Every structure is written in C-alpha cells, then in structure tokens.
TrEMBL record, chain A:
<dbReference type="InterPro" id="IPR007863">
    <property type="entry name" value="Peptidase_M16_C"/>
</dbReference>
<dbReference type="InterPro" id="IPR011765">
    <property type="entry name" value="Pept_M16_N"/>
</dbReference>
<dbReference type="Pfam" id="PF00675">
    <property type="entry name" value="Peptidase_M16"/>
</dbReference>
<feature type="domain" description="Peptidase M16 C-terminal">
    <location>
        <begin position="182"/>
        <end position="362"/>
    </location>
</feature>
<dbReference type="GO" id="GO:0046872">
    <property type="term" value="F:metal ion binding"/>
</dbReference>
<dbReference type="InterPro" id="IPR050361">
    <property type="entry name" value="MPP/UQCRC_Complex"/>
</dbReference>
<protein>
    <submittedName>
        <fullName>Predicted Zn-dependent peptidase</fullName>
    </submittedName>
</protein>
<dbReference type="Pfam" id="PF05193">
    <property type="entry name" value="Peptidase_M16_C"/>
</dbReference>
<feature type="domain" description="Peptidase M16 N-terminal">
    <location>
        <begin position="63"/>
        <end position="168"/>
    </location>
</feature>
From TrEMBL, chain B:
<dbReference type="GO" id="GO:0046872">
    <property type="term" value="F:metal ion binding"/>
</dbReference>
<dbReference type="Pfam" id="PF05193">
    <property type="entry name" value="Peptidase_M16_C"/>
</dbReference>
<feature type="domain" description="Peptidase M16 C-terminal">
    <location>
        <begin position="185"/>
        <end position="358"/>
    </location>
</feature>
<dbReference type="InterPro" id="IPR050361">
    <property type="entry name" value="MPP/UQCRC_Complex"/>
</dbReference>
<dbReference type="InterPro" id="IPR011249">
    <property type="entry name" value="Metalloenz_LuxS/M16"/>
</dbReference>
<protein>
    <submittedName>
        <fullName>Predicted Zn-dependent peptidase</fullName>
    </submittedName>
</protein>
<dbReference type="InterPro" id="IPR007863">
    <property type="entry name" value="Peptidase_M16_C"/>
</dbReference>
Length: 430, 429
C-alpha cells in the first residue's frame, strides 16, 4: 500500500491498485469507534446503452435497472446478505446514483469479517426469475413513495427540462412499467459488464488494523478469477448545449408550490483537469448570491418569493452537469422569472475582493468539516476517483483560486438558452 | 469499550457539559433551553427560532449575521425547536473549525462563543418588543411551513397518529405551533415568551471537541454570562395505558398509503425495563433483521419500508410503513401478528444475539457524531437518570428472552392510523 498524505488536516491514508484492477483505499482512524466501508462500481442509472462484455452490438436495457440490480445483490441462494451483517451487529446498506452503485456497511466489531462479506456478496451474483419477480412489488412501492414527494418530482422534472436525450433525465428507480420489463438475464448482462474489479473501488475508513486489513483484501481478491477487462463502451446519445424545454410544469396534489431554476453545463466545462476548479467556482457563486448570506437571497426573501431557505444543487460529471436553485414559494412563476433574471445579471454584478476572501475562508472551514464524517470522506474521495481526480488537490485548488477566475467563469457558465425553470403546482390550478 | 469524557458543572445559571474527544475536526457548542409543553405559548416558542436568526444588535439583518458566520471560517449555525417527551426544547447549535487546522488563527473559540452569546442574549429588540417587520414576516414563514406539513406524507401521518392517540395529553401539542394562534401573536407578546426562555428555562450548555479544559472553560464562563434565574423544571411523564384500539382512516390524493400504528409501552427512559424495551423494539421493527422488515417487506413484498421506533420519554412505540392502498388489512394483520409472536416467545437465540449487537453498534455509532454525543447526554438530563455507557452495554447484554417476552406483554396497541388514496388505489394498477 502507498501512503498518501492529506494536506491541512494532518492525516494520511493508503492506496493501491490490485492486479485485477480493483482500487483499494484504506484510511485508519483509531480515535473513532466504528469502521465504514464502501464498495462502489462506476455504474449508475445513466449507463443504459452499452456494449455488453464479450459482445459487439450495443444494447439498451430497461429504465431503473442499475437500481434494481442493487436491490437484488443482497439476495443469495441461502438467504439475505443483510443477515450476515446483522449477525455481527453491523448495519449494511446500498445506494444507486446517476453514475455509481455502492454497497456499504458500518460496524463496531468484526470489521474484517464484514469487509470479507462485502467483497464476497458483491462479487457473487445470484439472480433467478423468481427472486427478480418478487422484488418488483417492493420497488413499485419505493417508486410510489417518491411519486408522492414534491421535492423529488421537482428535481427530476428539472433534469427532464434540461436534457432531451441524455439518460440522466430518467428517474433512478425507473418507472413502474419499466421495472416490470426487467428479467434476470438483463441483470446478468449489466452485472458482467459493470461489476468487473477494474471498474470498482473499495474504501475502508475507521478503527481497524491496517496490515491485516490489507492482507485480507489482497488474499480475498487473489483467490478469485476475473476475465481480462476490455474497457466499457457507454453511449449517452447526442445532447445539445441548450436546454430541452425552458419551462416545465408538474401538477400534483400539493399545498405549497415549488420552483427550481437550473443551468445546464456546456460540455467543454466538464473537462477532467478543470472539474475541481469549476466545482469550487460554482459552489462559491451559488453561495455568494443565493445562500442566506447572499445578496440575491435577501431580495427574494424580502419580496416574499421564497419560504425559508433555498435548495442549492450542483452536479459536475463526465457526461453531464448542472446547477440548480430551488425552493418552496407561494409565487412560483415570479420566483422562476426572478431567479433566472438574477442568474443572468451575475456577470454585470461581479464579486468584490472582500467578498471573495470571505467566501474562500468559508469554503476552507467547510472542507475541514467534511472530514468529521467517515461516510462523507469516503464517498467524496471515491466519487472524484471515479472521475479520475485526486480529491486531496481541492485544498490547493482553493488556495490558488483568484477573484478573476471566479468572475470570468460566469461568462462561460451562464447563458439564457442554458437555463430552464421547473414548477410543481397544485393540481386544481391546471 | 469506548471512553467518553464528560465533565458536568452545575452552575446557578446553567449546567455546563464539557465533552473532550479527538474524533472531530470541528468544535460543537449547543445551548438547550427547555420547559414543559404548554398549548398557550407553543406557537410563539415555535416562532422564536425564526425570529432570533433574523438579526441581533450587532448584526441587525439576517445577511449580516450570516456574513459573520462566513467570516468565522464557515461556522455552521442553526436554531431549532422540538418536543422531548412532554417538554419543548429550543436548541442553538454552532459548529466551527478547530483552529489548529487553520493557519494564523487562535481565537476562533472565543469569537464563536461571542457570536452565540450575541444571538441568544442580544436579539434585535427594543422597549420590550422585537422588530415588528421581522415578526410579521416570520409569522408568514411559519404559517407556510405549517401548511406544507400535509405535503410530507410520512411526517403528516405521524403527526395525525399522535393527534388521535394522545388526544387530551400534553404530548399531542404540535411543537411547530398552530395557525389559529397567529393573529394573537405580535412583536411584544413573543418578546415576553423570549424573556421567559432566556431567564427561566432549564438551560444546558454543551461543548464538544478536541480542547483542553483549562483553555476553554474560563472562556465559556467569561463569554456566556446569561443573566438568568432558572425557575422551571422539565417534566417526566408518567406513562399511560391503552384502552380500546381505535382505527382512524383518512383519504388524500396519494399514490402510496401510509399505515402507522401507535402502541403504549408503559416504559420510559427512567424505567429499569427501558433496555429490555429497546431489545423488544430491535426484535420487532428497528432493524433490517427485525420481524417487521422480514415479514412485511421481504416475505410478503408489501412495503418498501416497515419499521418501528420508541419514544423514550413518553412511553410510546410507533410503527410506520408505506403500502399499496388495497393491502391495508393484510399489512396490519401481519404487523400485529409479529407483536403476538414475540409475546408468545417466538424469538430465536439468533434474533436476540443480533439485536444485542445491533443496539450496541448503534449506540457506539451515535457517540461517533458530535450531535449524537450531545443527544446521548441530554437524554439523560431530561430523564434525570444517569448511566455510564458501559453500564448500558451491560444491561443490553444481560437481557434474556424471558425479559423480552415479559416486556412484549406490557406493550399494548392503542391506535391504527391509515392514510390512503381517495380512489382506493384503483388507479394504480
């Protein structure tokens, strides 16, 4: 294992890429009680069209399949994997995002056995027609739970207005119709393509012994055989830089309307070597104008256009990206128009040196705080690692950031044809 | 076993709790103001956190206040309020970077404590009144928030269950307040409620982080000099028994129905059986290995979630699940059957063993978070029952199957609440 220093917080972790391609990160923290481990594949809801391993023709699989697969990983011929973790008092879980599927646990005893279980269950799929059918009722309830949540509908409505073809526009869990099309053969196709160790990482952080954990993971992987990886072809369709629909309205039984205004990223802003910097800049700008210390937020609040705080979201990935500002509002149309106008006026209302210095201080304190949480630390480092980025550079990127960088970025970032507005409105107003 | 260093100082103005740990890169300070729940002042107390965050004498607007926090290296600040048993607690929390990670800074602790003191003790007010414009604006905000609760189905169903189950009990008072009260609230009346909070409420101050007591304690004592004479004490509810089981059904335009069940346990945090009750809850519905998850979700595919939790200061156990509207009877019967099974001793050694480990794990995980540590000790303050964490692990470990069966028989179903679809779910197929 290679020791790597984490600057500013005076800690270090270890990393190695094993022969089979698996990236292993170990971050011992003897001062805490628990150990958290996450085993993650770079495969999410957007990976719907691809060339399956060993084949030549591309296929498109049903919406929501990565998430379905995640559910089914836990069921084995001899029962439910949750029970193995529970038997050791550990709590296990999993999640599927746009770009990754991750399996995780936290435990305060027997962390080595738990890591072994984690590696073994994710690397040993068991899908049958019967088990796949059984899951459909559960996932149908999960989808319906989200269908009743206005914030969730707003978020996906917004993405759907930004993107015409890119599969980020599809709900992560799919639809009730699409999940009923999924077969166990589909799951194997996806599994065999995307769950190769060379497409995966494991991160263990917390109270464990470095040497024996290293040995355990290496031995475990040495005892398994995998085909040689041949790279994965993924297809996301052709997507214009401008938004698909400038305005989207969703009617559902809510009392308080909601509105979200989003900026779609131009593809040239997603280059790997600029991503950390662009990430920080967007974060800083959203914060400077739309957080509770922001001047635009104050106006929105005083004009009665927003109830309480705004939801600020930001995604920068290899194949898509957007920033979004949302909130509950009694005046959704006015909110949408006003926030759009504000976004467009940022370039005429540049940030001052004093504001910039304060924003930098704030961001610095927030970066330090991120390392309080084991889960957050592991998730963030893995997320950037999947993008080919070493997250430790964030401190340096922040320190080197200048006021000009931030003010100039606005010109490239925000343009009228890349802004869309999405509203969730009470049904009666239709 | 984890070591927890918790030093408590009882002072006439407040209790000071110092919790030293090397786990975090930040320090956390919390002020907790508590008094018994009262219908008369609840809306004003619910409104206070909103008003107090809008300005102080030194930082007269919300923006200036937030800019100061940015200046303090992105210190994270919030005020919130909620129920703790039959008490209402207003909590101020400030979390800020430990200055050993920040070059050229060494008095962040003092600056942050001064900020906290400013917000709590010097709000924007004069002549016995808050700023009228602020109060009116925040009344609007709270009104909108109360009206939005019905949009969050899980939270709404939970609130309605408690309304029905605890009707006439203080516990059913809505901690977020009532729309009906808004007209009577003005900048003077809420200022009086603020004065009561700051002078009379029971106050506990927590400081969590990597520090030396001799450096931090004098600064706290110098800066947090609230002028107060605490005169109220928190209440410890006597648990009540269930009578006849009531079923309440309500209809809304929804896709997924919510089935929530309320039980009376007869056991609060102070009860010697409290740890046994935790074990019962673990076997019944708290974890993915619990009977509710395994039967309602895994065996019958009826729900995405089905779980239970205990309300430790009031003696309640609440079950919540999201199901298809036409599965009401089946789901309810399965839930009730799981309780019956435990009462009849259908518990495996494996279930007991798993649950012991899971509860121990959960508690250790709690004290890996600064907020978790504060809650752990504050729970004990509210209950007036002080137990070492190792004693707690011991009592969990010593729980027997007989204990669990005995406690399961004390737990009684009180109310079944069902929030379902207007069309009976027919449009869902």
């Amino acid at each position: 294992m290679n020791k790597i220093e984490i600057p500013r917080i005076n800690e270090h972790m270890y990393h190695e890429t094993l022969e089979n391609g698996l990236d292993v990160f170990l971050y011992p923290k003897p001062e805490v009680e628990k150990t958290f481990a996450i085993f993650s594949t770079k495969y999410g809801s957007i990976d719907q069209t691809f060339t399956p391993i060993g084949e030549n023709e591309k296929v498109t699989v049903p919406d929501g399949i990565a998430h379905f697969l995640e559910h089914k990983m836990f069921e084995k011929e001899d029962g439910d994997v949750f029970q193995h973790f529970s038997g050791r008092g550990a709590s296990a879980n999993a999640f599927t995002s746009f770009t990754q599927t991750a399996y995780l646990f936290s435990s305060t005893t027997e962390e080595e056995k738990n890591v072994e279980t984690l590696l073994d269950f994710v690397q040993d799929p068991y899908f049958t027609e019967k088990t796949v059918e059984k899951e459909k009722g559960i996932i149908e309830q999960e989808i319906k739970m989200y269908d009743d949540q206005a914030d969730w509908r707003l978020f996906f409505g917004t993405i759907g207005s930004l993107y015409e073809n890119h599969p980020v526009r599809i709900d992560i869990a799919g639809t009730v119709e699409s999940i009923y099309e999924i077969t166990h053969e589909d799951l194997y196709t996806c599994y065999n393509t995307f769950y190769h160790p060379s497409n995966m990482s494991i991160f263990v952080i917390g109270n464990f012994d470095l040497d024996s954990m290293t040995d355990l993971i290496k031995n475990n992987q040495d005892n398994k055989t995998f085909d040689k990886p041949n790279g994965i072809d993924r297809f996301y369709g052709e997507e214009a830089d401008h938004v698909y629909k400038p305005v989207e309205k969703i009617y559902m039984p809510v009392t308080t309307p909601k509105c979200m205004v989003a900026v779609k990223e131009k593809k040239d802003q997603l280059k790997k070597d600029q991503l950390l910097k662009n990430d920080l800049i967007r974060d800083m700008i959203l914060d400077l104008y739309f957080s509770k210390s922001g001047s635009y937020y104050e106006k929105l609040y005083q004009e009665g256009l927003v109830i309480d705080k705004l939801r600020l979201e930001q995604y920068l990935e290899e194949s898509f990206g957007f920033a979004a500002i949302g909130g509950s509002t009694t005046k959704p149309e006015e909110f949408g128009d006003k926030v759009k106008e504000m976004l467009l006026s940022i370039k005429n209302d540049p940030i001052k040196q004093e504001e910039f210095e304060r924003a930098k201080k704030k961001k610095y304190g927030e970066l330090i705080r991120e390392f309080n949480e084991l889960e957050g630390t592991a998730n963030t480092i893995i997320h950037y690692h999947h993008l080919g980025i070493d997250y430790r550079e964030v401190f340096q990127v922040l320190e080197q950031l200048t006021l000009d960088d931030v003010n100039n970025a606005t010109h490239e970032w925000i343009a009228e044809d890349r802004i869309s507005i999405c509203m969730v409105l009470p049904e009666g107003e239709q | 076993m984890p070591k927890l260093t918790h030093q408590q100082y009882e002072k006439s103005e407040y209790n000071l709790h110092l919790i030293q740990t090397k786990k975090f890169k930040t320090n956390t300070v919390a002020l907790k103001f508590a008094r018994p729940l009262e219908r008369e002042n609840i809306t004003e107390r619910a409104l206070l956190p909103f008003v107090l965050q809008k300005g102080t004498k030194l930082y007269p607007t919300e923006k200036e206040l937030r800019l100061k926090l940015d200046e303090l290296y992105g210190a994270k600040f919030s005020i919130n309020s909620g129920k703790k048993g039959e008490n209402h607690v207003i909590t101020f929390v400030l979390d800020f970077a430990n200055d050993k990670f920040i070059p050229d800074t060494n008095q962040l602790v003092r600056d942050c404590l001064q900020f906290l003191y400013e917000v709590a003790a010097n709000p924007k007010a004069e002549n016995g009144s808050f700023d009228e414009a602020i109060v009116n604006k925040e009344k609007e905000t709270l009104t909108n928030k109360i009206k939005s609760i019905v949009d969050e189905k899980m939270q709404y169903a939970n609130m309605r269950l408690i309304d029905e189950m605890c009707e006439g009990e203080k516990y059913s008072i809505h901690s977020h307040g009532y729309l009906d009260d808004m007209d009577q609230i003005d900048a003077q009346s809420i200022y009086k409620t603020y004065q009561q909070m700051i002078h009379e409420d029971a106050l506990d101050v927590f400081f969590v982080g990597d520090f030396e007591e001799q450096d931090v304690k004098p600064v706290i004592e110098e800066v947090l000099t609230f002028d107060r004479k605490p005169s109220v004490e928190v209440v410890r509810s006597e648990p009540t028994r269930a009578d006849q089981v009531e079923t309440v059904t309500e209809k809304q335009k929804i896709q997924q129905a919510k089935l929530h069940l309320g039980y009376r346990t007869g056991i609060t945090y102070r009860d010697p059986d409290y740890r046994v009750l935790q074990m019962f809850n673990g076997i019944f519905g708290m974890f993915p290995h619990s009977k509710l998850f395994l039967n309602v979700r895994e065996k019958h595919s009826l729900a995405y979630y089905a779980a239970s939790r205990i309300e430790s200061n009031k003696g309640l156990l609440l079950v919540f699940s999201g199901i298809a509207p036409d599965k009401f009877e089946q789901a309810r019967d399965i839930i009730i059957q799981q309780h019956e099974d435990i009462k009849n001793g259908k518990i495996s050694d494996e279930e007991i063993d798993q649950t012991k480990k899971a509860i121990t794990h959960q508690l250790k995980e709690t004290i890996d978070r600064a907020g978790g540590m504060v809650e752990f000790f504050y729970q004990q303050v509210i209950a007036g029952e002080f137990q070492d964490i190792e004693q707690i692990f011991d009592s969990i470990e010593q729980t027997s199957k007989d204990d669990i069966v005995r406690v399961a028989n004390k737990v009684e179903l009180d109310t079944v609440y069902f929030l379902t679809a207007e069309d009976g779910g027919e449009g869902n197929e």
